[in-house]
DNA sequence: TATTGTTATACTCTATAACTATA
DNA sequence: TATAGTTATAGAGTATAACAATA
């Protein structure tokens, strides 16, 4: 008998004991649904985050944005090109240093942010529907306390 | 004044309100550290998971392994090649159906799994060091309850 | 010399689609 | 016709390395 019964459910007990395994599965669900939610707004997960950081930190440079997003400067170039092309942010100049840009959201960027923020809240309401308000807050706070590398 | 003060910390309040943002950051930390932990064992995150599933579901087929791992069958081929080359699993034949394989761990695979399981437990102990045992269990259970797409 | 932004390139992970051999 | 496994290819996301302009 070398055949695994086709009607027997596959188990993953070995893996379910790990926090990381459950985190990966949960994150992939979040990522997939969030991508679908942001796509009609012309945003990706990373450009949504970039828009948020720029909005909250006006006149931030690309290098500092890279730090905030935990990606390389080279990646930020594409990201900022994307947001600038969509007229959601602009590359202002810095007096006294012609190397760097001062990134700021445009009016359209502000509007887009508010729209996206609402959409993402709705997305989370759906995805975390089985969790109470308190449980969602607990989950968020526990995730925040995971050691950063 | 168009310059963002270099000494002022960048804030991410807009994003921190979302569970998904914190989940992404936490997951990237987990993934990076886990990759480092598994590398010396000759495993990647996915091959670790595959080894666990095969061990727990002896004689599973590649198609059913794909389902369990939530990846495509084409991806499983490479994964199984990898584990078979390392002599951690073997492709057994199924009597009555020459299309499919019956995947099973080898002795070396069993040993490797136990070694990896210990290493991953140590990795999680380090990463979730700021969480109590109860909090880790809570985190794991909350993640498990996120809606699957 | 160091920093900012840029470009070109490569790597990892995964999906899609077309194929083969079996059923 | 349908299924299991395979192959080739492509895409998303990100990193690495070398470069020009400026400090």
Characterization of the model:
Chains A, B: Pfam families: MarR. Chains A, B: It comes from Celeribacter persicus. The structure is a homodimer of 149-residue chains. Chain A is mainly alpha-helical and 149 residues long. Chain A has a domain at 44-140: Arc Repressor Mutant, subunit A (Orthogonal Bundle). In chain A, 60% of the residues lie in helices and 10% in strands. Chain A contains 7 helices and 2 strands; from the N terminus they run αααααββαα. Chain A has helices at 13-16, 19-38, 45-56, 62-69, 73-85, 107-127, 133-144; strands spanning 89-94, 97-105. The first copy, chain A, has a two-stranded antiparallel ribbon. The N and C termini of chain A lie far apart (47 Å). The mean pLDDT of chain A is 95. Chains A and B meet through helix 1, helix 2, helix 3, helix 4 and strand 1 of A and helix 1, helix 2, helix 3, helix 4 and strand 1 of B. Chain A binds a DNA duplex (23 and 23 nucleotides) through helix 5 and strand 2.
Low-confidence stretches of chain A: none
Structural class of chain A: mainly alpha
CATH class division of the domain at 44-140 in chain A: Mainly Alpha
Q: What is the CATH third-level topology name of the domain at 44-140 in chain A?
A: Arc Repressor Mutant, subunit A
Distance between the termini of chain A: 47 Å
Mean pLDDT of chain A, rounded to whole units? 95
Number of helices of chain A: 7
Query: How many β-strand stretches of chain A?
Result: 2
Oligomer: homodimer
> Largest interface, counted with CB-CB under 8 A?
A-B, 75 and 74 residues
Shape of chain A: elongated
Write down the secondary-structure element order of chain A: HHHHHEEHH
Name of the CATH homologous superfamily of the domain at 44-140 in chain A: Winged helix-like DNA-binding domain superfamily/Winged helix DNA-binding domain
Keywords (chains A, B): DNA-binding
InterPro entries (chains A, B): HTH_MarR-typ (IPR000835), MarR/SlyA-like (IPR039422), WH-like_DNA-bd_sf (IPR036388), WH_DNA-bd_sf (IPR036390)
Protein name (chains A, B): DNA-binding MarR family transcriptional regulator
GO molecular function (chains A, B): DNA binding; DNA-binding transcription factor activity
């Amino acid at each position: 008998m070398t055949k695994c019964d086709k009607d027997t459910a596959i188990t993953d007990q070995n893996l379910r004991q790990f926090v990381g395994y459950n985190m990966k599965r949960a994150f992939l669900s979040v990522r997939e649904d969030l991508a679908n939610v942001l796509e009609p707004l012309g945003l990706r997960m990373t450009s949504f985050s970039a828009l948020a950081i720029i909005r909250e930190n006006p006149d931030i440079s690309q290098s500092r944005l890279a730090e905030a997003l935990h990606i390389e400067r080279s990646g930020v170039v594409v990201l900022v090109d994307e947001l600038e092309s969509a007229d959601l942010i602009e590359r202002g100049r810095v007096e006294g240093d012609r190397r760097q840009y001062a990134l700021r959201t445009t009016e359209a960027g502000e509007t887009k942010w508010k729209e996206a923020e609402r959409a993402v809240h709705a997305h989370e309401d759906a995805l975390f529907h089985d969790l109470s308000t308190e449980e969602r807050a607990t989950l968020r706070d526990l995730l925040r306390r995971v050691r950063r590398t």
